[in-house]
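Hey, resending since the last one bounced:
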Amino acid sequence: MSDASVDADAEAYCARVEAAIAANRPGEIGAATLSRVLQTAIRAYAFKTEKAGHYLEPYEKGSLTATETVMAATAIIRAADLNLWDVAMWFNRAGSAPARDDAGR
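The structure tokens again:
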């Protein structure tokens, strides 16, 4: 499977989900599929960030609300059985993540 094929499949899924959200039809978004897509997106983000050696922008600025971001981050932290202490230690621990670029990312 080529990169273009993976990207096209992802774009098609995203378009269908965005349409369901816009039409206020949550039943069209399968919970198991959403979970699988989220898992894979997180794994891909971690993989690409590690290989790049610096933080990548997780999403385009302004494309998600603060509420959407915190809802997802909170669910991910809980699913990983972490607490804010664990997250704070990881966030501030030197060497635990790729080097930040000149912009502080």
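The first helix runs from residue 3 to 22.

Sorry for the duplicate.
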